[in-house]
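Predict the holo structure. Ligand: NAP.
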Amino acid sequence: MRAYEIARGSTSTEGLRATTRPNPTAGAGQILVRMRAVALNYRDLMIARGMYMGGPVAADTIALSDGAGEVTAVGPGVTRFRVGDRVAGTFFRGWRDGPPPGTPLVALGAPPADGVLAEQVLFDEQDAVAVPAHLGMEAAATLPCAGVTAWHALIENGRVRPGETVLVIGTGGVSMFALQFARLAGARVVVISSSDEKLQRARALGAEGAINYRTTPDWEREVLIFNHGRGADHIIEVGGAGTLARSVACVAPGGCIALIGAVSGFGAEINPFGLLAKQASIRGVFVGSRGHFERMNAAIASHKLEPVVDKVFAFEETPAAYSHLERGAHFGKVVIRL
Ligand SMILES: NC(=O)c1ccc[n+]([C@@H]2O[C@H](COP(=O)([O-])OP(=O)(O)OC[C@H]3O[C@@H](n4cnc5c(N)ncnc54)[C@H](OP(=O)(O)O)[C@@H]3O)[C@@H](O)[C@H]2O)c1
């Protein structure tokens, strides 16, 4: 079968290469999935650049964590799925529900776990979910990392309520899911972006506040003004070094900063005492469990929510899909069709 892998020791997207692997067969408890679409995350750039977790990948590794397809075979003992079911794999192996397990989590697309950018992928049946019936495969492929992370942060941890204010940083994959989930919950959303055109698109999705962080570098003041001096009850913090101190400045009393990513770099220096009198918190979020994914899918199905897909590339155009994400021109998710 055809696949794309990140070559051992890769330090840039040049390490992405087409390859072939033997066709897998389903063993006990496993399902074989014919992948139909996969989606990119910022993490996939970090993996190719050798900047994810422990450094460059130590073995050739099939790329990407997120994808959806149809079950084409089931191994002995499988009870959760049948041939023909439309499924997506979970980002982590083995985290079914409840609090994060004590053992290190293994995620797809980085050693020791191959990813999903292959024509056929094996999953343990416990590490897959049915995808919402109304979604096409390209939309369903966007859910496992970006969707679940936003859901976990805002709905499961944040328990966002109608009328609360949610600050969404940037207009990438996690952020546009967060905007959509916040609107489902009846919250007011303010988005910051480098692009006025993207801010217009965010408004069309229901954002009430829209701030260009290039032309308004002290955007935290505008966030405070947006909510009458109170600030944001929930902050989807994907910026890192360039944004975290400003997020601390504009989080509302009793609010929570969901610490998710660092597109502008790690190593932020913040004064945590800025949180004390406001009794606000910073809480780390690391994607989520199968339970999070299943509850998110129930909400997506019930509201017929459509993930925001920026652009779909053909399998042979995989390097172009990586370049597109790397340029940062996207709004929402970048997808590859298989
Ligand atoms: N903890 C977790 O479980 C988890 C899960 C998923 C992702 N993440 C992390 O979250 C981050 C976002 O991931 P993603 O896949 O959603 O990325 P993405 O689709 O590439 O989007 C990133 C967005 O960040 C915005 N941005 C870039 N530089 C910025 C800056 N200096 N200040 C403010 N915003 C900036 C850009 O928005 P504009 O173009 O609108 O300016 C860009 O579209 C990454 O760091 C990723 O590793 C973590």
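The mean pLDDT is 97. Residues 41-43, 145-146, 149, 169-175, 193-195, 198, 213, 238-239, 242-243, 260-264, 285-287, 325, 328 surround NAP (CB under 6 Å).
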